[in-house]
């Protein structure tokens, strides 16, 4: 919920900046200040792109789209479904110190990060 709200807020700010840049260019006309318009337009465009491309680390797209909660270490909350197989790849999340194991779907190559223990 909080991540979705933050994305929406940042996306809204990006749209406002983008529209502000367009409005600034329209108001000042051809001889106006291009720098002033770009000062609003470029950060707005960057915010929109960042919101669209950002993804929480160690989270599958399934978890992102379904709105599942974050598990320990930022990974999945539940064990993946039957198509996933555990790998030997394990690591400690550098922020939380939680050990995570990588699970992979052999057919698609999709990876899931599941806390151990």
Describe the structure.
By secondary structure, this protein is α+β, with helices and mostly antiparallel strands. It has 2 domains: 2-53, no CATH class; 61-115, no CATH class. Helices cover 45% and strands 16% of the residues. It is built from 3 helices and 3 strands. The chain has a 3-stranded antiparallel beta sheet with strand order 1-2-3, with no helix packed on it. Strand 1 (85-92) and strand 2 form a beta hairpin. The longest helix is centred in the first third of the chain and has 27 residues, at 2-28. The mean pLDDT is 83.
Range of strand content: 15-25%
User: Residue ranges: pLDDT <50 for 5 or more in a row?
Assistant: none
Structural class of the secondary elements?
alpha+beta
Provide the helix percentage. Answer: 40-55%
Number of strand elements? 3
- Helix/strand order: HHHEEE
Average predicted confidence as pLDDT: 83
Number of helices: 3
Distance between the termini: 26 Å
Instruction: Profile the largest sheet.
Output: 3 strands, antiparallel
The side-by-side strand order for the widest beta sheet comes to 1-2-3
Domain count: 2
Shape estimate: elongated
Radius of gyration: 21 Å
Main attributes?
single chain; 117 residues; alpha+beta; 2 domains; 3-stranded antiparallel sheet; 3 strands
List the helices and strands and how they pair.
Blueprint: H1 2-28, H2 34-53, H3 61-66, E1 85-92, E2 99-104, E3 111-115
Antiparallel strand pairs: 1-2, 2-3
Summarize the structure.
The protein has helices at 2-28, 34-53, 61-66; strands at 85-92, 99-104, 111-115. It is α+β, with helices and mostly antiparallel strands. The chain has 2 domains: 2-53, no CATH class; 61-115, no CATH class.
